[in-house]
UniProtKB/TrEMBL annotation:
Lineage: Eukaryota, Metazoa, Chordata, Craniata, Vertebrata
Gene Ontology cellular-component annotations: RNA polymerase I transcription regulator complex
Gene that encodes the chain: Taf1a
Organism superkingdom: Eukaryota
Protein name as it appears in the record: TAF1A polymerase
Gene Ontology biological process terms in this record: transcription by RNA polymerase I
């Protein structure tokens, strides 16, 4: 019967899709391609009156297979993407973008630019307005490629030395790329979103031509506009710009403070801690200790010699002056249950000593103050350092022994 035929056809399609999914998960690209071919052929034989819209599914699956299939070629991929562009008007610009990404990954920059230009000129009634965001992305990536061409021309001129701008033709071509890139990049970064690469390129253009006020405004907007999602990179770009401009320490600290609140494990926390330690204000030095302790809470920092050096130096200063021991106590109270196993085990003492003696020295100093002279980490490292007749380790042992009372005060 007709109903039975429809039911069997539906089951067949679902089974075929299940086989395709299984093949994709197991990275069996040839098998997946065979099942996809069967799936497409079955759709062509579907005489039911039900509305079927499988074009996006075929596009997504087919793209994945062609990307990984050992026997696929760029020619086949281009042919497939052109077919996909004609299957669904609603997805036309998305398919164009994915095609461009693939061309760029294969180093075909001119072909990618040509595809972007064709996509930008695409018009289809009301769909043009509906796909406004996709169209802006198309324009933005074209601006990105114009930026790459501008950068290439700029490097040619700079390589010519003092007479770098003597080649008028190259200079004019460079300015032409600048104008096209700036227009499109400026438009995309007005839309709330994460536009890191576009912002970096636009700021680079502005800085090269001396428009520092516009660059500052763009970066401030990107970092502080509440309509944009929280983005650590926005604050990194602003900090790096302020640093290039020779801004005050106060401005730099302000930028990094927000970055610390978002990503306390960011690599710039070393710079942040260094600036705070040099401050004459007690509040900022206290924050510096908090920053470096927080960074070392993360596994990625466990063997960061610079970070341990920053912490060791500040802890040593506090111990010698015998002022603000409560700062250390407050930070340590929040960590004393898990830092000993995380940072100061005997196993880590042996490994750190073998791999990086400078790291083991800094960690041993901190361990000796926080856990006392009987700490496993401190005892192993100081013993090995004294055996090796290294003067700094003998001095380390004396320092910790002399200030063992600090450990008693910190531990309560």
């Amino acid at each position: 019967s007709s109903n039975e035929h429809k039911l069997n056809f539906k089951k067949s399609k679902e089974a075929c899709l299940s086989y395709i999914q299984d093949a994709l998960l197991q990275k069996q690209w040839k098998r997946a391609a065979e099942f996809l071919t069967c799936y497409v052929e079955s759709l062509e034989k579907d005489y039911s009156r039900e509305h079927i819209g499988p074009s996006e599914m075929i596009w997504r699956i087919g793209t994945e297979i062609l990307w990984h299939h050992s026997q696929s070629s760029m020619k086949e991929f281009n042919c497939f993407m052109e077919q996909m562009k004609t299957l669904g008007v609603k997805r036309y610009l998305k398919v164009c973008l994915e095609h461009v990404f693939h061309l760029l990954c294969n180093g075909q920059i001119d072909e990618a630019y040509q595809n972007l230009s064709l996509a930008e000129s695409w018009r289809f009634g009301e769909q043009t307005a509906i796909q406004d965001k996709e169209m802006k992305l198309i324009q933005a990536y074209r601006g990105l490629l114009d930026y790459c061409s501008w950068s290439k021309q700029k490097n040619i001129l700079l390589e010519q030395g003092e007479d770098g701008f003597s080649d008028l033709a190259v200079e004019q071509e460079m300015h032409g790329y600048f104008r096209k890139a700036a227009v499109n990049l400026k438009e995309i970064i007005k839309i709330p979103g994460v536009w890191d690469i576009f912002v970096k390129c636009y700021v680079d253009l502005l800085e090269f031509y001396g428009d520092h006020n516009e660059a500052r405004q763009v970066l401030n907007e990107y970092a502080y506009n509440s309509k944009f999602p929280a983005n650590p990179n926005a604050h990194v770009y602003l900090y790096e710009f302020l640093k290039r401009q020779g801004e005050s320490k106060k401005s730099l600290i302000s930028a990094l403070k927000i970055l610390h609140d978002i990503v306390p494990s960011h690599e710039l926390m070393i710079d942040f801690n260094t600036m705070l330690q040099k401050s004459k204000k007690r509040k900022k030095r206290r924050l510096g200790l908090e920053v470096i302790f927080a960074a070392l809470d993360y596994a990625g920092w466990k063997e960061n010699a610079k970070a341990w050096s920053c912490l060791a130096r500040q802890v040593k200063q506090i111990v010698i002056s015998e002022k603000h021991l409560e700062w250390i106590k407050q930070e340590w109270n929040a960590r004393k249950d898990w830092w000993p196993a995380f940072h100061f085990s005997r196993y880590l003492a042996k490994r750190n000593w073998q791999e990086n003696k400078s790291l083991s020295y800094e960690k041993a100093l901190v361990a000796g103050i926080l856990l006392g002279k009987d700490c496993k980490y401190f005892r192993h490292v100081s013993r090995q350092g004294c055996k090796a007749q290294l003067k700094r380790f003998r001095m380390l042992k004396k320092f910790v022994n002399r200030h063992n009372s600090v450990y008693l005060k910190i531990s309560g």
